Amino acid sequence: MKLYGSTTSPYVRRIRLWLRDTDYEFVNMDIFAGPGRALLKEKNPALKVPAFEDNEQMVFDSRVIFRYLQDKSGAKPLSWQQENQLTMIDAANDSFVQLMMLKRSGIEQNPDLLFFRLQLERIETLLSVLNADAEKGEFSQWDYPAICLFCLIDWVSFRELWDFSGYPALLALWQQHQDNTGVKATDPRI
Ligand SMILES: N[C@@H](CCC(=O)N[C@@H](CS)C(=O)NCC(=O)O)C(=O)O
Q1: Does domain 2-73 bear CATH number 3.40.30.10?
Q2: Whose CA is nearest to atom 15 of ligand 1?
Q3: Ligand 1 pocket, 62 CB below 6 A?
Q4: Which pTM was predicted?
């Protein structure tokens, strides 16, 4: 089994954390240039990471990769509430990625423009709901949704895209897992 990705992607990191006890090859690549870009094109026409390879089978998208792994191991599926939580985490993560791409493209964030207004409203709404869920203890187990939420918060902090001080339960979850061995081994800062 091979996981194609980068050490900075929060979507890749969630799969790496999920596969912590599994034997597989991690193919770390620069997805934006050179041979890494060529390999990405060869492996995933969506041109995104993660992508997963198991014998001849390619699987695209972290959510589908997780489902593939669940299916393969015969594990029970996520609850609908957990599926919704993943959708919320993914939507916030996608909006943050868009904001970062624009920033990297030299486009100033302007909350008066429709694009920025929609992303910022979505992020605020989602973080409030996720914070409330975390307060209720819904991410107290180190399961896949909690891993995805941790990867989101840690990546956003790493990229300095948001101030989480208004979301104490999210900050608490982030701090709680700092000493986890897998978390340390997959830190995008190193
Ligand atoms: N829904 C996808 C999102 C993956 C994603 O956006 N990955 C980013 C890296 S963090 C990427 O490959 N971006 C390249 C691009 O958008 O061109 C998943 O869950 O795997």
Answers
A1: yes
A2: 48
A3: yes
A4: 0.98
Distance 168 CA to ligand 1 centre (A): 27
**155: Cβ below 6 Å to ligand 1?**
no
Rounded CA separation 61/93 (Å) = 13
Q: Which atom of ligand 1 is nearest to the CA of 63?
A: 19
Q: What is the pLDDT of residues 124-141, one digit of tens each?
A: 999 999 999 999 999 999
Ramachandran area for residue 47 (φ above 0: left; ψ -120 to 50: alpha; else beta): left
52 CA distance to ligand 1 middle (Å): 13
Give residue limits of the domains in the chain: 2-73, 80-184
Q: Which tens digits make up the pLDDT trace of 81-136?
A: 999 999 999 999 999 999 999 999 999 999 999 999 999 999 999 999 999 999 99
Query: Domain 80-184 classified CATH 3.30.1360?
Result: no
